Amino acid sequence: IRGADIAAAHEEEYREKYKQKHAKDESVEDGNSTGGSTGAGETHIEDTVTEEITMAEVRKRLRDRGQPICLFGEDEQHIRARLLKLEIEQPDMKEGWKNELQSAMRDVDEELVKE
């Protein structure tokens, strides 16, 4: 038995597994494409809503939340979508995270001033 024969056998097995996996993925995608038409509509609606916000406002809101303005490979549409996602996940957070220690110190200072 030659080493080349073993390598060829491994390569053939790999190709067969890949073909089977690829066929399964295609069947799953076909099933999702028929039921996923509503998801595409929702994405289109989100895109039109997020385009109404200027990039200056998007940058300001992301800075207020302590988030990076632009991640590697993001375009303006993805940045707006990320901001929208953050605002949906954390609706109560209007101005970003506040340091609890600073808030406690401020409260103590206010109490001392009142006394």
UniProtKB/TrEMBL annotation:
Example GO CC term: the record gives: U5 snRNP
Concerning Pfam families, the annotation shows:
PRP4
Matching entries from Gene3D superfamilies are given as: Pre-mRNA processing factor 4 domain
Stretches the record annotates as Disordered: 1-49
Basic and acidic residues biased stretches: 8-17
Question: Which superkingdom heads the taxonomic lineage of this protein's source?
Answer: Eukaryota
Query: Per the UniProt entry, what are the Gene Ontology biological process annotations, in alphabetical order?
Result: generation of catalytic spliceosome for second transesterification step
Which parts of the sequence belong to the Pre-mRNA processing factor 4 (PRP4)-like domain? 53-103
PANTHER family given in the database record = PRE-MRNA SPLICING FACTOR-RELATED, PRE-MRNA-SPLICING FACTOR 18
The name on file for this protein is Pre-mRNA processing factor 4 (PRP4)-like domain-containing protein
> What is the scientific name of the source organism?
Strongylus vulgaris
